[in-house]
Design brief:
This protein is an all-alpha fold.
Length: about 80
């Protein structure tokens, strides 16, 4: 399967990373704790939050849940 660059997805992932980091700071929780809650190694979460990995929707949801967030995905027909 060929990978394609999607500018809109880059924006979503940047916003996601900022929100995860904001939640971690607000809750005073370490990255290691979030990684364990999400079922990942701390090094993997570090790579995700630094933008070194593309992630699946499952990973996106697991990390969000680990900091107490719910994610709502919506879609619409493009013009």
């Amino acid at each position: 399967m060929q990978s394609h660059y999607c500018p809109a997805m880059s924006v979503v992932l940047e916003e996601f990373k900022r929100e995860i980091l904001r939640q971690m700071a607000e809750q005073d929780v370490q990255q290691k704790v979030v990684a364990i809650r999400a079922g990942y190694k701390p090094s993997y979460l570090s790579h995700v939050l630094s933008g070194k990995h593309n992630i699946t929707i499952d990973t996106f949801l697991r990390i969000a849940e680990a900091v107490g967030l719910r994610v709502r995905i919506s879609y619409y027909k493009a013009d």
